[in-house]
Amino acid sequence: MVEKRLRQEAMKEIRPIVLGSMAMIASTLANQAVPRLLGKLLDQKSPGAADATCSSGGISQATLKYLAVVVLGGGAASFLRTTTLSSAEDSIASSLRNQVFRSLLITRDLEWFQTENIRDENGSEDSSKEGEKDAKSKQKPEKIEEQHSDAKHNLIVASGMTPGAIGAILNEDVTKVAHTVTGNIANLIRSTCSCVFGTYNMLRLNPSLFGISFGIVPLIGTAAIVLRKFIKKIAAKQRETATLAAAFAEEKLTHIAMVKMSNRELDEVEQFSELQKEAMQLGRSVSLANGAFMGFIFAASSGALFMVFDAGGKAVAAGRMTAGDLTSFATYTFLLGLGTSGIFKALSEISQGMVSAERVYRLIGPDGASTEEGKLEVLPTNLDVASIDSISMNNVEFAYKSNLNTKILNGISINLERGKVVCIVGKNGSGKSTIASLLAALYRPQAGNIILSDGTNYNTLDRQQQKQLVQVVPQSPALFNTTIAENVKYSNPSASIEEVQKTMKLANCEFVSNLEGGLNYCAGPNGDKLSGGQRQRLSIARALLSDPCILVLDEATSALDSEGEGAVADAVEACRTKPGRALLLITHRLKTLQLSDEVIVLKDGSIVEKGSFKELSNNKESELCALMPDLI
Q: 547-595 pLDDT, tens per residue?
């Protein structure tokens, strides 16, 4: 499957690849012509070799012309080979990165990022062999350390596919794959042509000497096969370790404040150093193997060259060949050794590239499609969002893929109507934020449905329509490292500045006028240049700018001051003004609960109580009073 997809990728750049490969063959032919030229030059320089066709230096005009063609043609071929193959490599790398990024943003659901494990598919052993591995480890104590290392890795990536891990694959693995399809394949062609042309020329010069030179090929081939298997295994572990290190660093830098507050800087540096040390040791193993192989190649080639000169010297003395022929043959012997080693080296690098290709296509998914099973088909529809009066969750059940046996939501039914304010309360882990995520279509229920007032299944709509229907303001809003205006317009890029300013006023974002540059003020990475309350108010403004049918505020008042709470009150008032919008508030604040039309109490993923705030707060035996003792 991976090989097929790589061929399809190569076909997109078939012209430069073919042109570069042809230039590679022409360059190899030029290199192969050099030993023959050296032999001719040596013979023509010999005493008594000069004749009327030779120049003043004792070299014939034909040889000089041949030399000029070889030098200029070889140089032009090398230039064409380098430029075309490099261009194809860059194009393939760009295409793969675009495919990966598109797949991650469009076809992968949120749970994939949270549960995908780096080792699941690129390790040397799959899950079906784990039992066999465990059994063997009891008999082989040396396996224990390896299993301990694997466990350490799994602990690091148990949380899912992190941005750091994805970044490492996008950068290093994609580059290696692109080079495999272009440079490594071309090198394989060049080395193969070098062996073929070298063999042909050696047979023409002296077939008996060829047997001596060709004797090194089986030795080189055997050593290369062993090396290839070893390097492929080590390369997979090395790439895995590098990805783990990138993911580890990304996580710690994301939570740098917690690292410093906990005084764990030195601990984290030490753990990162351990990962780097492991990667370095694996790389050293590959380097030692390559070094041993190249050393063996040099020794074998040198030994064969010595034997060729010994036997060839006797042939020259006997007059069976000239000194120039012997020089040419010896050079071809050396080129044959290099060509043979080049073939197996290219095969080894292609094997490493295939390891990277598996990792890249694992991110893309099968043929670029989502791997989510049972995904509902997106239906074409001309839905009029303004005509939707309500959205209902009917007997919704949900469990995360990582633990399908544990239900987070069980039989949830909620009706959200325009102009109505609903508050959800419950302890941490009761499923409040999961409801918000289901309404935002970040997850899909395993049972039950989310239905619009016109009977349409919400999960069959495309993302544009879902975005127009529901907007969620999370407890920890995300802001990008760009201007405040661009952050607010992220939900509605076509909005005018006047619309942005109007919405920001509704969300009580007057603080922006005091910032240098106002709307052009850069929020910083993740909005770090702003306070928590400021970030949440901007997030409310961003949600309101898309004018959704339903606005969900998930603990959005947790970092707001009294002015920010006014934004929530304004949002409540706006939702009740026709045509209005439904407002779902996930909160524990008494003032916010008092603004609601209905309060829903969640417990262990189920609705245990519904009613108005007045009704539930007056009942001292209610679940709401038990949850909020201050009401009693």
A: 888 899 887 655 555 555 666 776 777 677 666 788 999 887 777 788 8
Tell me which residue range forms the domain holding 364.
2-127+144-368
Assign residue 484 the CATH number of its domain.
3.40.50.300
Residue 376 lies in a domain: no
Asked if 287 contacts 178 with a C-beta cutoff of 8 angstroms, the reply is no
For residue 618, give Cα distances in angstroms to 259, 512, 592. 46, 42, 17
* Whether residue 291 has pLDDT greater than 80: no
Are 284 and 413 contained in the same domain? no
Q: What is the mean pLDDT of residues 209-226?
A: 68
In this structure, the answer to whether residues 222 and 339 fall within a common structural domain is yes
Task: Kindly report the three-state secondary structure assignment for every residue of 240-271.
Answer: HHHHHHHHHHHHHHHCHHHHHHCCCHHHHHHH
Query: How much is the pTM?
Result: 0.69
Give the span between the Cα atoms of 164 and 69, in whole angstroms. 51
Mark whether 422 and 350 lie in a shared domain: no
Q: 3-state SS string over 277-323?
A: HHHHHHHHHHHHHHHHHHHHHHHHHHHHHHHHHHHHHHHHHCCCCCH
Q: How far apart are CA 381 and CA 38, in angstroms?
A: 76
pLDDT digits (tens, 9 = 90+) for 127-136: 333 344 344 4
Percent of the chain with pLDDT over 70: 77
Same domain, 20 and 67: yes
How does DSSP classify residue 440?
T
Count of domains forming the chain:
2
Same domain, 167 and 198: yes
